[in-house]
Design goal:
heterodimer; A: four-stranded antiparallel sheet; 0% helix; B: mainly beta; 50% strand
Chain lengths: 106, 123
């Protein structure tokens, strides 16, 4: 199974900060890496598909990059509504696996 | 718009069975792979199982293999998760989710999720 390691597991930031979350895979994923946003244990929402495709409804301050085994999610300027938990997930091979999550707190 | 509505959760004793359902609307159900993902209380997301758009391919997490089965009734736009031999560690909110890419085995990601149904396994 492919192991996904996210870092950090939590971070404290202020409105306006630039935030970067990293996800590393135990083997190459090509570009089959997704990011999800989850608020208060409601259903997760797909934020970025296939490494860098920002989903509709999310602002352009969110971006994704990477390839192979190393991927990043960047929030260029943190807004109050961005405080949430973010998960990476590999869709390269089954069983799909998620990172452990990064909680972004004030 | 796309809607996924899960049902069937509840409290069950260890070793017993439960069947979850997920009714889909707002899209062509038989064109998309479907998944179940769970989240134990206070924990992260765990992928459980998938079924391809036509039901020909299924895959399971090691933690549920041999105990859970997935199926779909494309005539009723409904996804099922049959959970047997339930364990305390199966306690979680179970979400059904749609694969991103139609006519694919897995979909590469999941772009629509239901609200979840809580399964509690307790003696």
């Amino acid at each position: 199974d492919i192991q996904m390691t996210q870092s950090p597991s939590s971070l404290s930031a202020s409105v306006g900060d630039r935030v970067t979350i990293t996800c590393r895979a135990s083997q190459s994923l090509s570009s089959y890496l997704n990011w999800y946003q989850q608020k208060l244990e409601k259903a997760p929402k797909l934020l970025i598909h296939a490494t860098s495709s920002l989903q509709s409804g999310f602002p352009s301050r969110f971006s994704g990059s990477g390839s192979g085994t190393h991927f990043t999610l960047t929030i260029s300027s943190l807004h109050p509504e961005d405080f949430a938990t973010y998960y990476c997930q590999q869709g390269y091979s089954t069983p799909w696996t998620f990172g452990q999550g990064t909680k972004v707190e004030i | 718009q796309v809607q996924l509505v899960e049902s069937g959760g509840g409290v069950v004793h260890p070793g017993r069975s439960l069947r979850l359902s997920c009714v889909a609307s707002g899209f062509t159900f038989n064109s998309y792979p479907m998944h179940w993902v769970r989240q134990a209380p206070g924990k992260g997301l765990e992928w459980v199982t998938l079924i391809s758009y036509d039901g020909s391919k299924k895959s399971f997490a090691d933690s549920v293999k041999g105990r859970f089965t997935i199926s779909r009734d494309n005539s009723k736009n409904t996804l099922f998760l049959q959970m047997n031999s339930l364990r305390i560690e199966d306690t979680a909110v179970y979400y059904c989710a749609r694969g991103v890419i139609p006519y694919s085995a897995a979909g590469s990601g999941t772009d629509h999720w239901g609200q979840g149904t809580l399964v509690t396994v307790s003696s």
